[in-house]
Prior knowledge:
Layout lengths: L13 H24 L11 E2 L2 E2 L2 H20 L1 H25 L11 H19 L12 H6 L1 H34 L6
Antiparallel strand pairs: 1-2
Helix pairs in contact: 1-2, 1-3, 1-4, 2-3, 3-4
Amino acid sequence: MRLRDEWPVDHRLATVYRYGAGLCGGVLLLFGCLGFADELSPFGTDGTRIAGMSTNGLLSLISVLFGLLLIGGAVVGGNFASTLNMAVGTLFLLSGFGHVFVLDRSANILDFGMSNVIFTFVMGLLILTFGMYGRVTGGLSHDNPYWRRRHPRQAARESLAARRRERARAALAPARDASAGLRTTRPRTGG
């Protein structure tokens, strides 16, 4: 079984994936555009700072591309946005770990500083959380569409039991209404 086979197509969690991708994509796009507005050199490592982080033209380009990618995922929405968020969030985390090891070395072509590493970790976790929200946990509620797709037999049993309970309530309702009507229409005796 592939994870893709368990994706429900239409569910209310799609809004979370869409807004998460759009928000994070907007932040990255803004950071990249600020870098382009400052006319940075593509591979400069002179410590030019924007929004408290060091940057260069290449990092600005990468930020704009990932920002547009996430905004595109927000436009498409649904399962695509969720999967995209998980993939981009994972890439950001891996990038953060990789850049910890190249700080203050010639391999640091993106001019990362420690503030960039922290931002990358925070943004990666945020994007990853938006992508995994409601999908990945051991305690999904039984009305969650991912739980229902992963446990179709139990979901069918629960659905059948719920329908039977509803039919039993519906069958008892006229009897209850009739007995309630009798109680209210009985003539009073006594004086």
